[in-house]
């Protein structure tokens, strides 16, 4: 009885999840009347705006990841090592982006950093790009911090640091040659997740008026029929690849740990 | 007839026979331990009695009625788990009253029963009743688990390694309390453990299990002094094993190395056959003593100070002997390498399997 | 056993030798988190505070509740109400369906191999939100979508005639479920894993049926987690802007779309009304998340 119910729940659930994926794939192949074709994809891939916006978003994602790692890893490490009492407060701050909708944060940016403010970041395109990276870093903060902090928990940070110090290592060496390699898997997991979030992000990029992939998809969706479905397939493939990479690095780590 | 009768029980997981032809009649009010290393099948036997595993063959009868077809919630059996397994969302009183609530016992009657049970385990209702499990120590949690199991007056009590998760001191105290409560309530109990000291100290009878088979069933005294198989001999307690040859089975003379011993009892083996024999460390004496007719010059090799007892490994007659001697503040133990004398009696020699 | 002695020159650096350093040490130690705090202040807390404070200020300066009061127009009220409705229903359905699927995979009923692909897929689907998700649903049950056309051409069923429209409240709910259900699976599975087998067995030997075990033990234990998940899913849907915009353009009047329009073009005619609108959104998600955090702490306390 329970088993039948469980199967029914699973199959109905799977149907719900698979149908839209089938739908978008089918639609993306139907640009030429009557036959399946890759026309939608060729159109998209040939579109210079696609290349520009996609390249821009990849660049933003990479910048966000680098900035996020540089911000989160030393902080999480230092908090674990020297300021354990502050951890709940830091953790609370890192969870705030889940509470404050992204649209509100970016609204604040626009008002706080406009051309007539003390820090006119939105005055130049470079400044706005920077602002977008910071915005993305806040979006990624909950996931990045959680991943790194969990990674650090499995290490004995104190002993590791003392051991490195006793061998004459400075803080830079400790952070980049001892701590970072040991939380690399956590950092990579956070990085891939960040990539998946940033690559198709719409709200922040659109409101800051940046030529990113998310707003491009939205504009295309308002004007075309088949190309958006092809974009959805591409976006889904990217998300899937990011999650696959997370699984891959986690599994690789398990193997090396087991072998050690 | 036995109150709880386990007859020819079998259990296989796939091709793996975990329990093989296991039979054990238990009298009403008896405290029986299943002792063995992990994977010997003792927990599987217990889980079959509780109803969590279905036997591949065999019967489990309580008062003559087979309970195998019954589901766990129809068996009226109490069980205590290794990891307490108290319901974390219920208070101590609610945990103890859980079985009563299920049975439809309510109001004053249930309240009284819960109070009684909490008194028995020494956690009075007034003080502890409203606490949650996470506010109790491990020992207290396990006591509550015991009270919870006993509250609905089960026919049989099953204890699945209930002391393994506790600190050494709490473990010793709680096992005494468990035995005390069990005696007072007169409840038939099966206790599963891998700790031989635990099993020997509180049981009426001990079943030593090995690879799904009951190697030996007997009182703690019998198990310790007359191990039936080499496995029982090696698993229960410490001993020094020897190979010996039977010289005269009628009077019980054997020879080991160059040493002839008279065991003071007839042997069932033929002259010239090899028999495994062994000595407990406490049967060997440092120096001479009355009644220990075999006296050997020896060399102390290792001296291990264990508190009230000092364990010494000595070599004599080309053999290695373990011996225990009580600590006496006025007589320091020998140094390794020192020449000593050891003595023992042939009557204390254990013949394994006889 | 003898404890291994520490290497002599490894001293505990958290205990500096001189009293002078002792005074400075706590301050110096704080330096390590300064970059993070500055970042959080400038790009997370500051902008939010600016908005929240702006909601209580007049254009010329001075404190007021006018902006909050001015939100009470039929259009804004309706936007919040539709948003809350969509978020709540999609959260509730997401919780129920996600729980059922996770329970099926974790507590038996389904074979063991289902679990790992289910979790992997949930990881992907919960992050497949925003614009592409809207496209996927448009291509499937939109006006010219795969299923819509199939039903119309092959079975003669016109969804539109039955009142179904993807660009509507129910349509949005169906779309949101695509990331709500997987999110639920991801956060409730560890909680279900936390249900120990012994609890069920202990309840069984005490005479309880499966249903009694669920009613008296398992559900009360899971209850804080379930309610917490509901709150998290609610906040998750409430802040979703991209999916809604890509799906409906600006035809649907919900709070995030209204705010989006306000930021782009001051449709309310008063920037401080925009602040008030945003503050209202924060207030609602903050309540939902506070519920989540409090309840999670409670369930963790039990399960310590």
Task: Note down, in words, how this protein is organized.
The complex is a heterotrimer of chains A (260), B (354) and C (304). Chain A is mainly alpha-helical. Chain A has a single domain (48-259), classed as MetI-like (MetI-like fold). Chain A contains 12 helices and no strands. The longest helix of chain A has 34 residues, at 48-81. Chain A starts with a helix and ends with a helix. Chain B is an alpha+beta fold and 354 residues long. Chain B has 2 domains: 4-234, Rossmann fold, CATH 3.40.50.300; 238-245 and 277-351, OB fold (Dihydrolipoamide Acetyltransferase, E2P). Helix content of chain B is 25%, strand content 34%. Chain B is built from 10 helices and 20 strands. Chain B has helices at residues 42-50, 92-96, 98-102, 107-120, 125-128, 138-150, 168-185, 196-202, 220-225, 230-235; strands at 4-13, 16-26, 31-35, 57-62, 65-66, 77-80, 156-160, 188-193, 205-210, 213-218, 240-248, 253-256, 259-262, 274-279, 285-286, 294-305, 309-316, 319-326, 339-344, 350-351. In chain B, strand 16 (294-305) and strand 17 form a beta hairpin. In chain B, helix 4 packs across helix 6. The longest helix of chain B is centred in the middle third of the chain and has 18 residues, at 168-185. With 304 residues, chain C is mainly alpha-helical. Chain C is built from 13 helices and no strands. The longest helix of chain C has 33 residues, at 74-106. Chain C is globular and about 70 Å long. The two termini of chain C are 31 Å apart. Classes of the chains: A mainly alpha (260), B alpha+beta (354), C mainly alpha (304). Chains B and C meet through strand 6, helix 3 and helix 6 of B and helix 9 and helix 10 of C. Chain B: InterPro entries: AAA+_ATPase, ABC_SmlMolc_Importer, ABC_transporter-like_ATP-bd, ABC_transporter-like_CS, Mo/tungstate-bd_C_term_dom, P-loop_NTPase, Transp-assoc_OB_typ2. Chain B: It comes from Rubellimicrobium rubrum. Chain B: Keywords: ATP-binding, Nucleotide-binding, Transport. Chain B: Residues 4-236 form the ABC transporter domain. Chain B: One of its GO terms (molecular function) is transmembrane transporter activity.
